[in-house]
């Protein structure tokens, strides 16, 4: 994942509510899967292993977020575990087909979650995050970012 992607995810996370955070984890999982598949196609084994491990870590985060008192969580758990097994298989066999299987499952779940996210009107999960304004200013193609209240304390509040 590039530094720009990491910064974009950081911004999204700082402004996200609980439902949006799950969508972000889905997006990160898909990005890491794609990165792993590209590395497998290029026969870059170490890069593929690292990317697929990050994708599996994201899947583990999704597994950890399940509330197992609901029946729906049991089905989601099985889908996450299937995707995880496919990524392990892709890494072991050095082949992209299992990544494609896992990707299809996660893409469908992400689509469903986006619909759930649209119904969630709750506040952002992080109260103390800086606001970043970005836009094209002072010339064509130049992106300038401004941080609102840069001197504020962003530490955890007790």
Structural overview:
The protein has 158 residues and is mainly alpha-helical. The chain has five helices and two strands. Helix 2 packs antiparallel against helix 3 (45-64) and helix 4 (71-93) packs antiparallel against helix 5. The chain is flat and about 45 Å long. It has a single domain (3-119), classed as Four Helix Bundle (Hemerythrin (Met), subunit A). It has a two-stranded antiparallel ribbon with strand order 1-2.
Averaged pLDDT: 84
- Content of β-strand: 5-15%
Tell me how many strands there are. Answer: 2
What would the CATH topology be?
Four Helix Bundle (Hemerythrin (Met), subunit A)
Q: In terms of per-residue confidence, which ranges show pLDDT below 50 for 5 or more consecutive residues? A: none
Strand line-up in the sheet with most strands: 1-2
Per DSSP, the total helix count is 5
The CATH architecture can be named as Up-down Bundle
Distance between the termini: 33 Å
What structural category arises from helix and sheet content? mainly alpha
Task: Sum up the overall morphology in one term.
Answer: flat
Helix content bin:
55-70%
Q: What's the main sheet like? A: 2 strands, antiparallel
CATH homology group: Flagellar protein FliS
Tally of domains = 1
Q: Order of helices and strands, N to C? A: HHHHHEE
CATH class: Mainly Alpha
Structural Rg = 18 Å
Write a short abstract of this structure.
This protein has 158 residues and is mainly alpha-helical. The protein has helices at residues 3-14, 18-41, 45-64, 71-93, 97-119, and strands at 131-136, 143-148. The protein is built from five helices and two strands.
